[in-house]
Amino acid sequence: MRGREFFTARTVSETLAGFRPARRTAVESVPLAAALHRVPAAEVRAPDPLPGFVRSTVDGFAVRAADTYGASEGLPSYLDLAGAVRMGAAPTVAVPPGGCVAMPTGGVLPDGADAVVMVEYTAETMPGTIEVTRPVAPGGGLVRADEDVAAGAALVPAGRPLRAPDLGLLAAAGVTAVAVHARPRVTIVSTGDEVVPPCTAELAPGQVRDATASALAGLVADAGGEPVVAGIVPDDPGALEATLREVLPTADLVVVSAGSSVGARDETAGAVAALGDIWCHGLAIKPGKPTLLAECAGIPVVGLPGNPLSALVVFRLVGVPLVWRLAGCEVPPPEPTTRARLSRDVPSAGGRLDVVQVSVRDGVAAPLFGPSALLSVLTRADGHLIVPEPATGLDAGCEVEVTLYR
Amino acid sequence: MRGREFFTARTVSETLAGFRPARRTAVESVPLAAALHRVPAAEVRAPDPLPGFVRSTVDGFAVRAADTYGASEGLPSYLDLAGAVRMGAAPTVAVPPGGCVAMPTGGVLPDGADAVVMVEYTAETMPGTIEVTRPVAPGGGLVRADEDVAAGAALVPAGRPLRAPDLGLLAAAGVTAVAVHARPRVTIVSTGDEVVPPCTAELAPGQVRDATASALAGLVADAGGEPVVAGIVPDDPGALEATLREVLPTADLVVVSAGSSVGARDETAGAVAALGDIWCHGLAIKPGKPTLLAECAGIPVVGLPGNPLSALVVFRLVGVPLVWRLAGCEVPPPEPTTRARLSRDVPSAGGRLDVVQVSVRDGVAAPLFGPSALLSVLTRADGHLIVPEPATGLDAGCEVEVTLYR
């Protein structure tokens, strides 16, 4: 069995730092309207400067700044109104010395002008004559043609998922398609003789419907991946190995949610070891210890504990960053968090990361304990808190940071 | 002009509390795999109890608890091994007095047994005889048939968007489709003589590409809505009114991103007032003051400032909760936040909510100032901080909470 020497337990931080498969998904071009949360494969640069013309930032009058020097309420400058600039059109008049042109916010500065005086500091005392009561400096009331973005400057960086405002800047620059990493295909394999599909109407004694695959698919989608639910494999190393051989060629990441018995856990390791190298088997985390990380023909494989809650805990901490990294994003976008006061003591063993499901109400985080086999915790938990490896528990009343589920 | 008497400025908190259109989207059934972040229209209840059978939570041996009373390392109980339970199958043997049956985690408790003793406290000293070194109480090592979820109990509540773990519990209960509110259709109308579509390759002098619509579409999608980009209307009240008449019948919410000139702002109000009631015109927020909220034939209409950054600020604070509410969700899911130290003083006028774009690095939030017309702030900002209405500024070095963009 290849890789047996790597059968070793790791801490979560060792895993995040050390298990970094080189694989990245292919690059594809998507239209801007489909680019939200996708990861640009390269920095996107501005083809042209923005705004592209000298643009007024105020409603007022385009002037030669020197014509306003010394202007005050008591001693205004008087300028001849030479015309008006229309929105979205080139100016049809220039500003002569001693003259001005009416400007809307966003209009093009006419030739001859070097500033725009705000309408608030002007009055049309006589038809055709504008009184200016405050001086404006050259460059006042306008932005330069490349002040927003210079030609060739970065619009959005590579590797950071695109946010809604990014789409606005790209649209302004005329970028209507972006080269992004393909969504990682995450193939989810469930195992267990007792596990049947969720659509099973009537359960035979001892059967349970597959809870983990549906929840994992949701986490994968939240991480920008494309979940592929590959179905349920019986507790049989040959069957799992055959399934892995079948799904590996079309997957970017394979997730095996193990059966919950001791035997089932070992079967995953056996099947994976036959196809690649096991990086760790056992994680210093509770719940989630029976976790396996491997690479098979360049495809990362995550073997999750059989308990659905444990599987989700591990996938959030270890699997979600992997999905993002496969798409070229090294720092996953932030998750919602809140600070809360702990309602009761939380025991923990040192040297192990403890992940505690909590409900949060009115600033109080209440740990949800009880048999770990209970699935109803999945919907009662608003989030989790982490007791780090060195700590040996948290005291009631202390302030904790809760990662909120969304 | 109807509704003229309502032309009135409001605070953001007044608006969130007071502008609450009654409209909700229709209810539709979606398969579980498409239900992530959708809002259930009604509580979903369990058709049957979970797990549905008395289930072992440990690997070990099903026993009659009384047969283990008094067992210890020094004086074990000896039980006859009557057989084994297979995963996913009904037991084929019962536990007789003085006997036991081998149990995998997740197996069905056989008749006669009332507890499962963990394998760690047992040894098979002779073939067919199990030595038990620790007593187990009745109910130990197992969950009752309805301990996880009772028949008819709530699986997920109405009105809270479904999270990934919720999908797991629903799958376990055999719920493969959920009645959810339809995604709100949010029709985005851009206005302005200077505004041209993002696909415009060459700009004529004074033209700008529509940045706001693409960014708004992203925010709408993040809020679970379906953005419908309706295109660009010239600065003409008749044209805007005609467009509104056309889009209102198929929209759940209409968003008008106004031209940036004074005249353009007033045109939105005129067109909307002709079709419905204006709830407020002017919001005590910076940036974003020229905001308009109205209801036209039961459809909420949001008129946004012409400046793209201002438009996004207002839509995040006022529009996003509206989109969620249209889908039946009163409390939008949490956004990511972080605490950071402010790098410099932020001035603010009392009585107005100030929204300051910031970049965040190493726990320091640096306000992004400069001409508000600059679009590049859209991608440089990692989030925003809020200076509440009563405050008159924030001091450099103080701790602030930043809402992070994702």
Which descriptors apply to this entry?
homodimer; 406 residues; alpha/beta; Molybdenum Cofactor Biosythetic Enzyme, Chain A; Molybdopterin biosynthesis moea protein, domain 2; Molybdopterin biosynthesis moeA protein, domain 3; 4 domains; 6-stranded mixed sheet; 31% strand; disordered N terminus
Describe the overall structure:
The structure is a homodimer of 406-residue chains. With 406 residues, chain A is an alpha/beta fold. The first copy, chain A, folds into four domains: 4-26 and 182-326, 3-Layer(aba) Sandwich (Molybdenum Cofactor Biosythetic Enzyme, Chain A), CATH 3.40.980.10; 28-49 and 159-181, Molybdopterin biosynthesis moea protein, domain 2 (Alpha-Beta Complex); 55-143, Molybdopterin biosynthesis moea protein, domain 3 (Molybdopterin biosynthesis moeA protein, domain 3), CATH 2.170.190.11; 337-404, MoeA, C-terminal, domain IV (Beta-clip, Beta Barrel), CATH 2.40.340. In chain A, 18% of the residues lie in helices and 31% in strands. Chain A has a six-stranded mixed beta sheet, with no helix packed on it. A six-stranded mixed beta sheet of chain A has the order 16-13-17-21-20-18, sandwiched between helices. In chain A, a hairpin with a 2-residue loop joins strand 8 and strand 9 (129-132). In chain A, helix 3 (212-222) runs parallel beside helix 6 (308-326) and helix 4 (237-247) crosses helix 5 (262-273). The longest helix of chain A is centred in the C-terminal third of the chain and has 19 residues, at 308-326. The first copy, chain A, is elongated. Residues 1-6 of chain A have low confidence and may be disordered. At the A-B interface, helix 2, strand 14, strand 15, helix 3 and helix 5 of A face helix 2, strand 14, strand 15, helix 3 and helix 5 of B. Chains A, B: Pfam families: MoCF_biosynth, MoeA_C, MoeA_N. Chains A, B: Catalyzes the insertion of molybdate into adenylated molybdopterin with the concomitant release of AMP. Chains A, B: This is Molybdopterin molybdenumtransferase. Chains A, B: It comes from Pseudonocardia acidicola. Chains A, B: Its cofactor is Mg(2+).
